[in-house]
Amino acid sequence: MKRIIFLILMGLLSIIMSACSSSSSKTTIIYPKEPPKDDLYDSSIINDESKWGTMNVHDPSIFKDGDWYYIFSTDVKVGGTPRAGIQVRKSKDLIHWQWVGYALDGVPKEAEDWTGATNLWAPDVTKIGDTYYLYYVASTFGTNQSFIGLATSKSIEGPWQDQGAVFKSQQGDEWNALDPNIVYAADGTMWMDFGSFFGGIYIVQLDPKTGKLMNNATPKLIARRSGADAIEGPYIIYNKQQKKYYLFTSFDSLFSDYNVRVSRSDNIDGPYVDFNGNLMTDTNVDSGTKILGSYKFDGNDGWIAPGHNSVLVDGNNYYIIHHARGEKDTNWPYLHVRKILWSDDGWPMVSPERYAGETEQQINKDEIIGKWEIIELDKNVNSEVTSTKIELLRNGKINTNDSKDHWEFSGKNTIKLYFYDPDHVQKGQYWVETAKIIPAWDWENWNPTLVFTGYDQTGTAIWGKMDKESK
């Protein structure tokens, strides 16, 4: 009798242990909640800024003030004449955005006299002591008759007092006084990077007492492209963990094939190099590591010409903030916020989906088995890139045309995809794509999912999204 009871108890224990083992094979993933749904191309609200939300956002610059995130952006208005003065929005979660108003009442006189501009572009905000500094741009489109000005306020929402010119340029100058970004070096010194098209991207030290150029300061070239190739919208951050400065710039046409590239340096004033060690001042190569471009996942229209970004460093979290144009009608620019992850060798990796409140967390290997959509952000293809489909099988194989293709997963939420291609790979016989996985919201199929972002061994950014059929 005792033996029978013992065997029964052992059997129950075995069942319990098996159940525990089975339940531990999957983790409880905390997915973001459903965000506000897109209502694109809504011409009925064109004349009511309070309803714009993320619509009519161009060249967004972000600044966190207390519990609020503020976006300052270029004066644009689809289907009408924009009011001049720098648009301002705010949010408490980077998801729901509300209209604040205009920072300035039109184009300041000195800027108007110099450029003839009818609206203002590409603002950036910083704070020194108890004073907010708003940098703005006036320019004659297609020329380097440009003006970077400064306004100050004791409140992030104004009123703002114009302080006149910070830097000006005109025909014949090697630089263009456009797209200012204020950045602080690790030693606390204050700098401004700026530039566009004419001559490239420059950096110059500022006097924190005035917010203007230091006495006798001369701009230094940090990035350039050959001929009339477009480079603009510079934005620099310092990553304390990597002890490096990262320069983000936008390449090509803001109307069609805009794309964001990144490079890094040990010093704030360069030299900046990309993933492959190319100097950003070398006009003989197509430098810059592309991390964002036009794309389309299955199930919805894509996004065209994403670019002119700022970057938010919020504690240990990084976000890229940029505009993008809807594929259906590219006249309409919208605000996008995306989470940035970091590769093990210190390169920023942009999420393929817009931010909806997701957090990095431990993912179990079993969770990623299934069908995925893959996008490769080839820097040689800056038109819209569409996704392809693969399936990650439980046996570690990738369900493709080659039986040698396989995948691996490590405990750091890192996935490696091995694609056999002995005729094209320079080192070894596989294309190896290394990426990190994070929960996200699938804006195309309107459900939570998993995504990954990373690079192959040549520095081509790769994106992945778990297919809705796998959920």
Automatic annotation (TrEMBL):
<keyword id="KW-0732">Signal</keyword>
<keyword id="KW-0326">Glycosidase</keyword>
<dbReference type="InterPro" id="IPR006710">
    <property type="entry name" value="Glyco_hydro_43"/>
</dbReference>
<dbReference type="GO" id="GO:0046558">
    <property type="term" value="F:arabinan endo-1,5-alpha-L-arabinosidase activity"/>
</dbReference>
<dbReference type="Pfam" id="PF16369">
    <property type="entry name" value="GH43_C"/>
</dbReference>
<protein>
    <submittedName>
        <fullName>Arabinan endo-1,5-alpha-L-arabinosidase</fullName>
        <ecNumber>3.2.1.99</ecNumber>
    </submittedName>
</protein>
<feature type="domain" description="Extracellular endo-alpha-(1-&gt;5)-L-arabinanase C-terminal">
    <location>
        <begin position="352"/>
        <end position="464"/>
    </location>
</feature>
<comment type="similarity">
    <text>Belongs to the glycosyl hydrolase 43 family.</text>
</comment>
<dbReference type="InterPro" id="IPR050727">
    <property type="entry name" value="GH43_arabinanases"/>
</dbReference>
<dbReference type="Pfam" id="PF04616">
    <property type="entry name" value="Glyco_hydro_43"/>
</dbReference>
<feature type="signal peptide">
    <location>
        <begin position="1"/>
        <end position="19"/>
    </location>
</feature>
<comment type="pathway">
    <text>Glycan metabolism; L-arabinan degradation.</text>
</comment>
<dbReference type="InterPro" id="IPR032291">
    <property type="entry name" value="Abn2_C"/>
</dbReference>
<dbReference type="InterPro" id="IPR023296">
    <property type="entry name" value="Glyco_hydro_beta-prop_sf"/>
</dbReference>
<keyword id="KW-0378">Hydrolase</keyword>
